[in-house]
Amino acid sequence: MQYQLKINGETRTVDAEPGTPLLWVLRDGLQMTGTKFGCGVAYCGACTVHVDGSPTRSCQTFIEDLGDSEITTIEGAQNKVAEAVQAAWREKDVVQCGWCQSGQIMSAIGLLSENPKPTDDEIKEYMNGNACRCVTYVRINEAVKLASEKLEA
């Protein structure tokens, strides 16, 4: 079947079977490989994208459920919050293996879009659904706090 999706501000037409996860539409259908496959059961957060501004696990979001939703991937994350998060990630040298980082960044953008001045506990709670095999959680926390400061400046 053909579906029209709004991805990163563009309407894209894709061919996919009903029940196809958005993750595979992005990666295989549109060659947008910034969104990663981790666990396939919405546990690790590597596949996080934004659907209508909310962090969403693309491995368990099915193409037929998207309708007119606005989808933002790591490739399209370009607003003020996204720029602050990406700069903080570089400054704090968060990335180790990198596999989870697009999902971590998309979740951090979601957090700071909702709550520009989170506490340490709020950061931990919000980011809890994103697993990091390299255990860079301390640097992730520091980067979220730095991004918050950048937004305040």
TrEMBL record:
Sequence ranges assigned to domain 2Fe-2S ferredoxin-type in this UniProt record: 1-77
Pfam families named among the record's database cross-references: Fer2, Fer2_2
GO MF entry, a single one: 2 iron, 2 sulfur cluster binding
InterPro entries: 2Fe-2S-bd (IPR002888), 2Fe-2S-bd_dom_sf (IPR036884), 2Fe-2S_ferredoxin-like_sf (IPR036010), 2Fe-2S_ferredoxin-type (IPR001041), 2Fe2S_fd_BS (IPR006058), Beta-grasp_dom_sf (IPR012675), Diverse_Oxidoreductases (IPR051452)
Tagged with keyword Iron: yes
Superkingdom of origin organism: Bacteria
Annotated keywords: 2Fe-2S, Iron, Iron-sulfur, Metal-binding, Oxidoreductase, Plasmid
Classification via Gene3D superfamilies: 3.10.20.30, [2Fe-2S]-binding domain
Range of residues in the leader sequence: none
Name of this protein: Isoquinoline 1-oxidoreductase
